[in-house]
From TrEMBL:
Protein name: Aminopeptidase N
Peptidase M1 alanyl aminopeptidase C-terminal domain residues: 561-890
GO molecular function: alanyl aminopeptidase activity; metallopeptidase activity; zinc ion binding
Reaction(s) catalysed by this chain's protein: Release of an N-terminal amino acid, Xaa-|-Yaa- from a peptide, amide or arylamide. Xaa is preferably Ala, but may be most amino acids including Pro (slow action). When a terminal hydrophobic residue is followed by a prolyl residue, the two may be released as an intact Xaa-Pro dipeptide
Native source species: Caenimonas koreensis DSM 17982
Gene name of the encoded protein: pepN
């Protein structure tokens, strides 16, 4: 999509390109103000397409020369496309030479070639390569690349590109060069270039196949001590992919480069992954356990793309989930396989589902709802979404579940591996579709449920929305028969009024009164309604439905408190055990929210719920990480999705009131939890140690909340001391957050000290900003603090991480403070969306989505939010990125 183009692109309009590019020879003379790019391509006409003009994409380029087979040729410009009509006829290869210049230092969009600090970086996915040279910038055009980089050696001693380094040396005038050759054909979005003052951690490894490889992690000088975990994660990724899927590293070297200016988390460019520094840099003094876990996951994700995304890529951008959904599934499996205990695997699964339910389910129910394989878009950057990624991963997970072959392969891992083997056998080196992937998995398992139901299963790729499964149970004591009726439905979404039944694998079990499991099965729901019958039962069981979250659906079952308490105590499935506790809390929150006249002070938790939470906290066998998840109340965003009309301030007030009651009622238990878990010895980011720190952090936060209610100064004082004495960032930040979120008078002192300690650590200062912008004091008036933070010398709108740390933390992650009756939050939002759009449209479009669900808001917030969205939409020079989001938000009004 070119800037200024406003037509919608449809998947049904896909056509093969009129030309193929066989090879690309690029020469860069790097200069921040004026980089010269010589692009020599060997091309040929596509014999399957009617002869036509060659149209090459380009943006913000200065064109100097166009040659065909070494001779000048006529051309014309249409919008931002370079059009050549007088090209050789027939299918013979011809050489097209294009010489352009660009200005990387002025590239604030961080798409294409840009500078960050004193170094050059690229980001070409999805359509950034056209900002480097004129090209057929589409994923189905795959070519081999040879890249020559030339630059001032003193300023840019490191010169990197894709593939293998074949030559390097010095040039006149203090310059030097490096020549890189990528032996594998790739689309232009996987091109990468890095040049600058960088240092590397290196590790040589030998693969299972006996080949030696060089792994490198490049960072700016001074950050090398923060790269050990990233390197360990990369080595673990290489080993895991060989062991689990038989996929080996296929290059002599594999490089990761970190930069602080990056729109995304990371990018899987072939052999040269470029990362946002937050997903590379970590040591115990500057990174939390969450950071360590995220680095492991993202490093794995980008490495796994080497095969699922690079060796096999997308035919078109509508197939984005082909690589992203599959690779998210792979990185989730990687993290779970690295967990040494079953409980840690369960915790990882719960964490992944929480993301899905708090981010993707709302997207599925909002104006930006789309299938994991969209049918149309205005700007492809807007479809790098939780639907394509996280829901896409769940659809892949269901395919693994549905190729299970019984006791010999109960999880479907062997069958899925066979399907992956066939997928690579058929399509390695090609650009293909989601249909090609599902067909390979099914064909490799011809007797599986997936193969039998494949046409219907593919509705997950074409239908948007979150299916809702309603379950109703009945017990006939005379016959000892329990019947469970399952029915499915899916609400209309934009452009899809009618939904056909999905294929929904539902893992379930039946729990008896004494806590034993009397039945378990995997049922695949395919009809609108089906009834399951279980016989030989002595008493009515408690159904444990959707174990392990076996499908991305909303489950409706009218559980009683007694049934939920039984599941919480006895269920052998960790996910449903956690879910039972969440439902107990949600039921109480919803009851209080619905009673408009009920004052917060009159909201009283019942003793049964409190005792249930105490039993979880004190349970001798439950993992500490699981306890922390079970004792954390459902998020305000998740609660809002359960309501037809939303008052975010009411939700916030109720949640805070219940947290305060849990803090006070379990005070002695929180003290026990803190004392029993706060000493862990030498820091390790493993699941057991991080789980203990998570529970300690929650306990400390609850004790500080209780102190706010009672006026006690002991625990805030202990929190401050722990903040000062902490030997790692997790404990230090947990203590700081406990003071800030509880509104302690000691918070200001701790915040000031924290900034002084870490003022030179950009990623740590991001946390400092985010904590304050995401906090809600007792008055909820956080907007003045946010505005003050934006005047801080360390704040910059041009750095995506810093902008997200303040603006997004307030607008997207702090609903109780953002949604104000006076509309001040919405005015602030519209100002910042417009301001960011002029600098970096991708970041602006992400911020624009903070008001996706405006139609659910209670008045006067609803009208005020609509007015703010309309104000942004009325901006005449808005980017396609932002315009698509706000236009769709208003489209159903």
């Amino acid at each position: 999509m070119r800037e200024g183009q406003t037509s919608v692109i449809h998947r049904s309009d896909y056509q093969e390109p009129a030309f193929w590019i066989d090879s690309v020879d690029l020469c860069f003379d790097l200069d921040p103000a004026k980089t010269r790019v010589l692009n020599k391509m060997k091309m040929r006409r596509n014999p399957h397409v009617v002869p036509q003009a060659l149209r090459l994409d380009g943006e913000e380029l200065n064109l100097s020369r166009v040659l065909v087979n070494g001779q000048g040729t006529s051309f014309k410009m249409e919008d931002s496309q370079l059009v050549l009509e007088n090209l050789p006829a027939g299918n013979d290869v011809f050489e097209l030479e294009i010489f352009t210049t660009c200005a990387p230092a002025k590239n604030t969009k961080l798409s294409g070639l840009y500078t960050s600090g004193d170094s050059f970086y690229t980001q070409c996915e999805a359509e950034g390569f056209r900002r480097i040279t004129y090209f057929l910038d589409r994923p189905d055009v795959m070519a081999s690349y040879t890249v020559l980089l030339r630059a001032d050696k003193s300023k840019y001693p490191v010169l990197l590109s894709n593939g293998n380094l074949v030559e390097q040396g010095t040039l006149d005038d203090g310059r030097h060069f490096a020549k890189w050759v990528d032996p594998f054909k790739k689309p232009s979005y996987l091109f990468a270039l890095v040049a600058g003052q960088l240092v590397a951690r290196e590790q040589r490894i030998t693969s299972r196949a006996g080949k030696e490889h060089l792994l490198q992690v490049y960072v700016r000088p001074g950050d090398l001590d923060k790269t050990e975990h990233a390197m360990n994660s990369l080595m673990a990724s290489v080993a895991w992919d060989e062991a689990r899927f038989g996929l080996s590293l296929d290059l002599e070297r594999f490089m990761i480069v970190a930069t602080s200016d990056f729109n995304m988390g990371a990018m899987e460019n072939k052999g040269l992954n470029i990362f946002n520094s937050k997903y590379v840099l970590a040591n115990q003094a500057t990174a939390t356990d969450t950071d360590f876990g995220n680095i492991e996951s993202v490093v794995g994700h980008e490495y796994f793309h080497n095969w699922t995304g690079n060796r096999i890529t997308c035919r078109d951008w509508f197939q984005l989930s082909l690589k992203e959904g599959l690779t998210v599934f792979r990185d989730q499996e990687f993290s779970m396989d690295l967990a040494s205990e079953a409980s840690a695997r369960a915790v990882k699964r719960i964490e992944d589902v929480r993301v899905l339910r708090t981010a993707q389910f709302p997207e599925d129910a909002g104006p930006m709802a789309h299938p994991i394989r969209p049918d149309q878009y205005l700007e492809i950057n807007n479809f790098y979404t939780v639907t394509v990624y996280e829901k896409g991963a769940e659809v892949v997970r269901m395919q693994q579940t549905m190729v299970a072959s019984g006791p010999s392969d109960p999880l479907g891992r062997e069958g899925f591996r066979k399907g992956m083997d066939l997928y690579f056998q058929r399509h390695d080196g090609s650009a293909v579709t989601c249909d090609d992937f599902t067909q390979a998995i099914a064909d490799a398992n011809p007797d599986s449920k997936l193969a039998q139901l494949l046409p219907q299963f593919k509705r997950w790729y074409s239908q948007a929305g979150t299916p809702r499964v309603k379950a109703v149970g009945s017990f006939d004591g005379a016959s000892g028969t329990y019947s469970l009726t399952l029915s499915q439905s899916c609400a209309p979404t934009p452009g899809q009024a009618v939904k056909e039944p999905f294929v929904i694998p539902i893992s379930l079990g039946l729990i008896s009164a004494d806590g034993s499991e009397v039945a378990s099965s995997m049922h695949v729901l395919t009809q609108e309604s089906e009834t399951l019958t279980f016989t030989g039962l002595q008493a009515e069981p408690v159904p444990s439905i959707l174990r392990g979250f076996s499908a991305p659906v909303i489950l409706d079952f009218a559980y009683t408190d007694e049934q939920l308490l039984a599941l919480l105590e006895h269920d052998t499935d960790p996910f449903n055990r956690w879910e039972a506790g969440q439902r107990l809390a949600l039921n109480r929150m919803m009851a209080f929210i619905s009673q408009d006249a009920l004052a917060v002070a009159d909201m009283k938790l019942d003793a049964r719920y409190i005792e249930a939470m105490r039993s979880v906290l004190r349970h001798p066998k439950l993992d500490a990480a699981f306890k922390e998840l079970a004792l954390t109340l459902p998020s305000e965003t998740y609660v809002a999705e359960q309501l037809d009309v939303v008052d975010p301030q009411r939700i916030h007030a109720v949640r805070e009131a219940l947290r305060a009651q849990l803090a006070t009622a379990l005070h002695a238990d929180w003290e026990w939890a803190f004392e029993a878990h706060h000493e862990n010895g030498a820091y390790k980011p493993d699941s057991l140690s991080s789980g203990r720190r998570a529970l300690t952090g929650l306990a400390l936060a609850m004790l500080c909340i209780a102190a706010r209610t009672s006026g006690d100064t002991v625990w805030p004082g202990k929190a401050l001391q722990r903040f000062k004495d902490a030997g790692n960032m997790t404990d230090r930040f947990n203590a700081l957050a406990a003071l800030v979120t509880s509104g302690s008078d000691l918070a200001a002192q701790a915040l000031q000290r924290f900034h002084a300690m870490f003022k030179d650590e950009a990623l740590v200062i991001d946390k400092w900003f985010a904590l304050q912008a995401g906090a809600t004091d007792r008055g909820g008036n956080i907007l003045p603090i946010v505005k003050q933070l934006m005047t801080h010398p360390d704040f910059s709108m041009r750095n995506p991480n810093r902008a997200r740390s303040v603006i997004f933390s307030y607008c997207s992650a702090n609903p109780g403070a953002f949604h104000r009756a006076d509309a001040a939050g919405y005015v602030f939002w519209s100002d910042k969306v417009i301001e960011l759009d002029a600098i970096n449209p991708q970041v602006a479009a992400r911020l624009a989505r903070a008001l996706d669900r405006w139609k659910k808001l209670a008045e006067p917030m609803r009208s005020a939010a609509r007015e703010a969205i309309a104000r942004v939409a009325a901006k005449p020079d808005l980017s396609n990125d932002t315009r698509e989001v706000v236009t769709r938000a208003l489209s159903e009004d």
